[in-house]
Amino acid sequence: MNSVNVVLETPIKALASLLTKKCSDVAAVVQLSPSTPEVERTAAVKNADVLVSFNPSAKLLDTAIDRCSLLAIPFAGIDKHTALLRHYPQLRCMNLHTNAPLVAQHAMALLLSLTNQICTFDRSLRRREWRPTDPSPAMTASTDFDAWMGPSSLLCPDYTIGLMGYGAVGTRIAAMLAPFGCRVISYVQHPGPEQYGPDSLDAFMEECDAVVSSLPTTPQTIGIVGKKQLDLLGPKGLLVVVGRASPFVEADLYEALKEQRIRGAAMDVFWNEPQPSARHHDDTLPFTHPFDTLPNIVLSPHRAWLPMADSMTQEWYFEPIAQNILRIAQGRDDLVSLVDVNKGY
């Protein structure tokens, strides 16, 4: 067993506790903080075999690069860091996808809120408009049944659900959809047999009754779904987005919803999200078009990735980092949760 120097750029109590329990025989852990003297910080980073950083900088990586063999960015998605990381091709980088079941569950909640008109009827009751779900004796042959009942729910077994992205999140959504009996198809950047890819995106959209996207932001995904693709999804189509908003052209999605060229959408991610430090104080909406005025969209403030307040205080969230430290100590190269910086995921 080799000794592994692990440096946490900022204190992470749950990770430190996990490493004490699982890696104490092989790992020497240093937790830095904003008050750590610069000389001490530089020395620790230079000596790091594994560096854990939420927001790595060029200065940090320049200091670490001679020795460091693994950079751990402890959340999902590296789109904010790919440009920087491409300058360090020798440095392996990992993400955490331990929240994938939580994201998948949130995606299912958003999808079912659309299929079952949950928000529509919630709003109607708040307006004191009672819309029953069962016929009553008061109905007559002349009753406008559709108007009396309100918008219909949709039956999942009758639906083809298209998953854009079929990684840690997409595969879990597929598993959750299985008991509903719907047909599931997938779109990925590098398609295998029976999968759709960039050359068949239009065919994919036309085939779907609902699309659930967990796509990341990469040069290959930005703006790939616009007016044409939304029109192919059609007036009965539904869209759920829990990955990144960038694959969808904001103006085109807004117009498609406003003109009811698709039936509805549910968004957990947006194009102009506030910085973490401003999220509790900034009243600026995370989009430039007035989605908040539309009745056929469900809005969720990027909660899918971390829906529980204590998620990042739980040791299980950081388990893959501990697993990789043990493998590095054993001299193994088969690390888990690695990302391909060139692909962007």
Describe the structure.
With 345 residues, the protein is an alpha/beta fold. It is 30% helix and 13% strand. The protein has twelve helices and eleven strands. It has helices spanning 13-22, 38-46, 58-64, 82-85, 100-115, 118-126, 145-149, 168-177, 201-207, 227-233, 250-258, 319-329; strands spanning 4-8, 27-31, 50-52, 70-72, 92-94, 160-164, 183-187, 210-213, 238-241, 264-267, 297-299. It has a six-stranded parallel beta sheet, with helices on both faces. A five-stranded parallel beta sheet has the order 2-1-3-4-5, covered by helices on one side. Helix 1 (13-22) packs across helix 12, helix 5 crosses helix 8 and helix 9 (201-207) packs parallel to helix 10 (227-233). The longest helix has 16 residues, at 100-115. The protein starts with a strand and ends in a 16-residue tail after the last helix. The mean pLDDT is 90.
Distance, first to last CA: 30 Å
| Mean pLDDT over the residues | 90
Number of helices: 12
Spans of at least 5 consecutive residues whose pLDDT stays below 50 are: none
Protein name: D-isomer specific 2-hydroxyacid dehydrogenase NAD binding domain
Organism: Carpediemonas membranifera
Keywords: NAD, Oxidoreductase
GO molecular function, one term: glyoxylate reductase (NADPH) activity
Quick overview of this protein structure:
The protein has 12 helices and 11 strands. By secondary structure, it is an alpha/beta fold.
